[in-house]
Design brief:
The protein is about 70% helix and about 0% strand. The protein contains 13 helices and no strands. Helix 1 packs antiparallel against helix 9, helix 1 runs parallel beside helix 11 and helix 3 packs across helix 8. The radius of gyration is 19 Å and the shape is globular. The chain starts with a helix and ends in a 9-residue tail after the last helix.
Length: about 325
């Protein structure tokens, strides 16, 4: 078995684990406020991330070199995590993923002002078509749009912005700064809401929260190994396999009906996203490869940066900065 094939299979496993992570979020979201779920998932994630941070032998402090970028990314990360958790709680899994998959399209657009990226007509058309797919999923005018739909869209926008900030300053800021600031902000802000929303939890639900943190860690390390074995252009498209898991889990576990607008819209969004990835992978259609360098899973509070674990050969073409 070739290294590329092993990397692709590991990426499939990683995103399957992430999909299981989201099933637990949906299960808990039926009983508890998103504030409580995010708070405890971050709390249980601290020990895992602390072990990783102990590997950072850099002699420096925790003061960011780009405080305003860090502040805006931290806010975007908090909003993204909360909104993604809320969307998973109230929307069908496949529909939530379809909307979140708009993030690579938004990254392509936002890379123009933020990174100075030049987007040719082919990728521009792919973005336009992909955003049309989002409209197919949402069916404005025919379906009553809810806060869940708005939350999923906001999560996609926030995740795209947060990813591009790291893409812009990632080579200059320490990983510990990029990881800890959003985690601490989530812990403090969600903790402030706890007196108003907290509900007592049985041991099984507390264990589920711990499993959510563990699954995020396991899936992240599977992604790290996948990017070490295979090129990003092979690994990145595997994220779209999550919608297959979401469809299966939704039908089997939550009695969710599979609607044709979601299927059609998802297909359009996925085709557009894969085209953009392949276009960037050719090396001639993108100067900074913003989508290929975006390697963190969207909407997972406290997710680790992947880039520090990869050699330069595994990171793909160099740009002015690197992404997780």
């Amino acid at each position: 078995m070739s290294a590329s094939l092993r990397g692709s299979l590991l990426a499939l496993a990683a995103f399957g684990i992430f999909a299981t992570h989201d099933v637990l979020i949906k299960y808990l979201g039926g009983s508890y406020a998103p504030f409580q779920i995010v708070f405890f998932s971050v709390l249980f994630g601290f020990p895992f991330v602390t072990v990783m941070l102990l590997r950072d032998a850099t002699e420096a402090n925790l003061i960011p070199k780009h405080p305003w970028w860090i502040a805006s990314r931290t806010l975007a990360a908090v909003i993204t995590g909360f909104c993604a958790f809320y969307a998973f709680s109230v929307l069908p899994l496949a529909q939530t993923y379809a909307i979140l998959f708009a993030a690579p399209l938004l990254i392509t657009l936002l890379a123009i002002p933020m990174l100075g990226e030049q987007v040719g007509w082919r990728r521009g058309l792919a973005v336009f078509v992909g955003l049309g797919g989002v409209l197919v999923v949402l069916q404005p005018g025919q379906t009553e749009l809810s806060l869940g739909h708005g939350a999923a869209l906001l999560a996609a926008c926030g995740g795209a912005y947060a990813s591009l900030v790291v893409r812009k300053i990632g080579r200059e800021e320490r990983s510990v700064v990029l990881i800890l600031y959003p985690m601490v902000a989530n812990f403090v802000l969600m903790g402030a809401a706890m007196p108003f929303v907290y509900q007592s939890m049985p041991g099984l639900d507390v264990a589920a929260l711990a499993v959510i943190a563990a699954l995020a860690l396991i899936a992240t390390f599977c992604l790290i190994l996948a990017y070490r074995m295979a090129a990003a252009v092979m690994v990145a498209p595997m994220q779209y396999s999550q919608i297959l898991w979401a469809t299966l889990f939704g039908v089997l576990l939550f009695d969710e009906a599979l609607e044709w607008p979601t299927v059609l819209g998802s297909g359009i969004i996925i085709a557009s996203g894969i085209y953009i990835v392949l276009r960037e992978g050719k090396g001639g259609g993108s100067a900074t490869t913003p989508v290929l360098r975006t390697r963190a899973r969207l909407g997972t509070p406290g997710a680790m940066r992947i880039a520090p674990f990869l050699s330069d050969e595994n990171r793909g073409p160099r740009g002015p900065s690197d992404e997780n």
